[in-house]
Amino acid sequence: MADKIRILLAEDERMLSEILYDTLADRGFEVVAAYDGEEALERVRTAPFDVIVTDVMMPRMDGFTLAKQLRKAGYQTPILFLTARSATEDVVKGFEVGGNDFLKKPFALDELIVRLRALAGRMLSREETQSYQIGRYTFDPRHNSLSLDEEQIILAARETAVLLHLCRQMGETVEAATLLRDLWGDDNFFNLRSLNVYISRLRRHLAADPQVEIVSLRGVGYCLRD
């Protein structure tokens, strides 16, 4: 990945779009703007991006439909939804259609930047070369991969980041607040629900080996055991 992170910004609120465009450009991001879902889809088809930021409610094609179309076409670019919605069913739907993260409006620009860098893979140390053995699985954080025998699962960037934190403290409890601050930049309740979704997805990925489990310690955090 190049040093400059390339962002597609799909946002139909012109004032917000201009603010985000200027702020991200000032922080060193390369930003391409789209003002509805169909325009965003065409831009992805013509050029590569490191992260796609899309509002959920947009004309011509909403953000959930955009994500669904991109995943159906085989694009694996991380997608961050900007939304005024916070209901659990909306968060779950967003992940089901291929989203990687949510940011609830109104939001702090610094939090958006932390999330963008995380989704672009910058949460991983450039010196992280170690692979981890988790039961019968091999986890390679550099390539976002989880392998078992002949099968390989390509993890989302945030899944990789969460699993890496758990692997680094294998058998020990990792506080949820620590995960949230390190990977989301904020340990609020909305982000906690997103973390819980990622934990559920990781459990499904690891389900083929019954000796591996991610244990929840209510009100504290999570522990990866094999």
Beta strand count: 12
Strand order, largest beta sheet: 2-1-3-4-5
Structural class: alpha/beta
Order of helices and strands: EHEHEHEHEHEEEEHEHHEE
CATH class of the largest domain: Alpha Beta
Basic shape: globular
Q: Report the CATH topology name of the largest domain.
A: Rossmann fold
Cα Rg: 17 Å
Question: Helix amount, in percent?
Answer: 40-55%
Average of the residue pLDDT scores: 85
Major sheet, described briefly?
A: 5 strands, parallel
> What share of the residues does DSSP label as strand, in percent?
15-25%
Distance between the termini: 33 Å
Annotated CATH architecture of the largest domain? 3-Layer(aba) Sandwich
Q: CATH superfamily of the largest domain, called what? A: Response regulator
